[in-house]
User: Fold these one by one.
Assistant:
Number 1:
Amino acid sequence: MNNIKNSVFYVTVIGGFTALIYWVISKGASLEVGRNIVKKSVESNHWKDFLHSMIENLQHPLAILLAQIVTIILVARLFGWFFRKIGQPSVIGEMIAGIVLGPSLVGMYFPEFSAALFPKESLGNLQFLSQIGLILFMFVIGMELDLKVLKNKAHDAVVISHASIVIPFALGLSLAFFIYETYAPLGVEFSSFGLFMGIAMSITAFPVLARIVQERGMQKTKLGTIAITCAAADDITAWCILAVVIAIVKAGSLSSSLYVIGMAILYVIIMLKIVRPFLKRVGDLNATRESLNKPVVAIFFITLLISAYASELIGIHALFGAFLAGAIMPENNKFRNLFIEKVEDVSIIVLLPLFFVFTGLRTQIGLLNDPELWKITGLIILVAVVGKFFGSALAAKFMGQNWKDSLAIGALMNTRGLMELVVLNIGYDLGVLSAEIFTMMVIMALVTTFMTGPALDFIEFIFKDKITAVQQEIGSKSKYKILLSFATPEKGKKLLKIANSLVKKQADNSIVTAMHLSLSTEIHSFDVKEHEKKMLLPVIEESHALNQDMVSLHKVSSDIDSDIIDTANQGEYDLLLVGLGQSIFDGTLLGKILGFTTRIVNPDRLIDKFTGKEGLFENNPFDERTRHIILKSKMPVGIFIDKDLEEVNQVLMPIFSKEDAFLIEYAKKLINNNGSQITVLDAGGEVKNTREIQETIRSIEQIAPNHIMIMNDRTLKKEFLESQDLMIISLDSWKKLIESQSIWLNNSPSVLILKP
């Protein structure tokens, strides 16, 4: 009755007022008489009108900007992903993506497309948004600096970092002396040109260096700590020097810039002595996610904007103000993490790639059309490497480091990355750097950042000290070794229960390693120890409760599934246990299309398809990561699907084919070590007919006659399934169950899917 009443009301209101609207418009047409209204001319057909309208819409500034952003983000992510796959920081890929979209490649070979996507009149909007992205990014960089570390290691770090600034600065200035007459823009003083060449040689990219240290597992080592501390000290010092250089360039001379420098010092003092204590107080009172509400967030954003505005007004660039605003944020790690979460994704994923492309649009490799210009480019790279790499290495050696660590510090400090591009763009905007020099310096930034990884590998090779974390942890090869890799502490505890039930009574002959991998883009240099503790401590406590000896392992990774595979294969583990991941592409039509295309364009998957390891149109019940792990791991793999596992006492083990015979060995382990009750379901009649399976079961029955039972009834009751703690099934049999849409799936307990 209620539904009828609502329907009548709806029809009456909508119909009545629609009629009223029509009547008013009809009557209103009579009011147009004498008002000289020009009707829009209609072409011969409406389709042409529509197309004409579409073309006009495509040329609207907002449409162009949105098309630019979508294209830039997609290309940047693609190149970033590719370079991560080859062991390089993603920033390298994003920098190259910018150059590719610029006149150096797309502009050269597809000029019409380039002109349509990046018309000159749109570049102002692109620059504006990229500057906003940079301001937010520098704010994050400031927050990522752990000033406590600087306080503790200040002496060594300051000596090494300042040496790594002054040596390349002097060499860059000397280089400027030789190339000034030929390559400096007309009307630019030598002091301005030379100072910018010097500071451009002196920059270290703190965020890139921190990621490399994390991904190589160096953050706990003495070397990693020194490198991060040096980079942090370098960052602060270099940005202060850059502020002075900008002041001198804008003023024209050192004496003219003294007012600017004086104002800058006063501004820094106010930020440190007045603003910082106030922000600390606000941060202490609002350190939880719930209390970090919009008014509180507004306070910090206003501080950022005022700081950036003040530094721009003084004449030392808005980016310095953003960096300083980040550095004076409350030191509470929890607070910083919460705030970084709010800023980082927008700045790094959306806005920062715009900066890379804007830089790429300015980089014209085609200008280097003479062998002499490439010689100068090579000389710039040589001076940059000698100054930064060897300058840092010699300083570190002088401070008491061995040659291996000294050279490694040199290689890390030579990383320039994005920070170099920021300096170069400032110099280009100020008119200090010519288009040719700008392009040469961008190439130098790419080369020096690219060489960091290979240089570290080469240093390791030279000194032959390649002891991996895996080799330290695995111990004797004769022991039964289980590696469990978990994403959350809860999953880790469940996987540990399964591992424990397999080796409980064989403590002397087994090793269980629990590993958590953190994605490098989601964890910050100051937060590594805290994050490790948060992830591993609950699992360690569970191991104590189970009385299970366990080795814990934490790594920061740029490619989690590949690192899981490498760790398992290199460690020669006997069993790898992982939780089942979920694909973001499942569940919708668009998702399935995207998922299919993703699988096709993945180089690893393409190789597997061409070699016949995986069918192109194969319907797989696992997500991409799990499939990759199953395919590449050289040992048995267990994929765990959790349905509130508490114990491993009642275990169902379906046998569908002869190939499932290997499962009986796991039944044996569970009975011997955990006293589990195993129900073997002879679903395919193979237990009856396979001598090997019969003999294994008979040997179990002799030792533990009441712990294994054969079941022949394929129709399993709901009550029986619910009474089981765990179902262990082979990978092939699980796929068949999925395909047949078995009712088991609805009522099954937690599942461990085993690949032999």
Note: Residues 466-476, 583-587, 589-594, 596-619 have pLDDT under 50 and may be disordered.
Number 2:
Amino acid sequence: MYINSRLLKSSRFIWQLRSITNSYGNNKQLTEAVSFIAIHLRNKQLVRISGPGSFIYLQSLLTNDMRKLLLPKYAEQSSSSDSRNQLNPVIYSFLLSAVGKVLCDLFVYRGRFITAECSDYESDGEFVLEVDKSLATAVKRLLLSYNVNKNIKVELADDLNLWAILPASLLNKHYSADTIDETLRPIDSDDLKLVADPRIGSKYFGYRFITRLGGSSLKDLGPYIKCQSNHERIRLIEGQITDYIRLKYQLGLAEGHNDVKSGFYFPFELNGDFINAISLDKGLYTSEEKTIKIYSTQPIKQRVFPIEFSCQNHTLRRISPAPNTLIYSVNDRRKVGQLHRRIGRFGIASLTIPLTSNNIPRDIVTQDLYHNDTGLKLRASIPIWWPKNFDQIYLNVPKYPECLFNFDNQNSHVQLT
């Protein structure tokens, strides 16, 4: 009996010691500085679109649903966990050609003087497009060519600065992100916008930060990031554009003119259904019928995959694989795809998903691949944010609306005959 009581007292002491240790660890986390990487995206250009009917104008051109920017019930359909049950300050979309192929990809930010009333959908509004800098002039010219009524104003928004805010854990493999809260509260105003990445969320690709008339240097961003963080101490470090591109390739994201070659790929081949860039319920837009046709002929036989070369960086500097070159399978010497771009050992490639005789997809990541021009070996991988059945289209069955631009069918101003 005496021994049992001593054991009981010692066990109580151990549990008390554990609780004290855990509470000390939690307090330490509260005072630990959280690191963020700020990257000035100078390879991007912001374009402002304003004027009566600007909402309808963009709704009839883009693959994504502009109503997600204005009404919560459409924002809830977003695949990003950061955007559920609230308005989306930004969406990601494609601009298609007449034959249904992607001309360019872009981000659309909600601007000023936007109203969500159905009776006022032609009121004056403003949207900001984020496009690749090398395509900004061409996109502006294309948008003006679609403006038949001459009531839309398209101009370069040189008064805005664009940054990518990435948690340091995304760029440092030895950094533990499980014990530290790296989320930032969003900002949605006329002069400042801090929003989670609309494609795969802030957990994997951080935030985008737009500032007006300021914010061109790193020291201007610190107070805003500190106010939106849950920690008292933050460390803001300026990163390079190569850090952004490397992480983008590791996640298997194709973005910008270097990755998305104009007029070569259909939206689903660029994983548009995975990154929340396509809406099947919005109604008519440019080449909408071609997109629906591809949707009805599943499975998708080609997608963009992240790839990694098996050699060292110094070998890649000596033998540099050129972009838009072929990739073959080691086993059967068969062409399986094309290299888009790379930075160091990491890159992205359009690869054909192999099928068996029963049209059952085989795993492309189990195959040994090599670059045709250089003979360098490489492997494809499946990003952690992808759905399980990546050969299928990751979208719900379309429910076509009665009216293309109506927010509420009960208040419809267009009568169907």
Note: The radius of gyration is 25 Å.
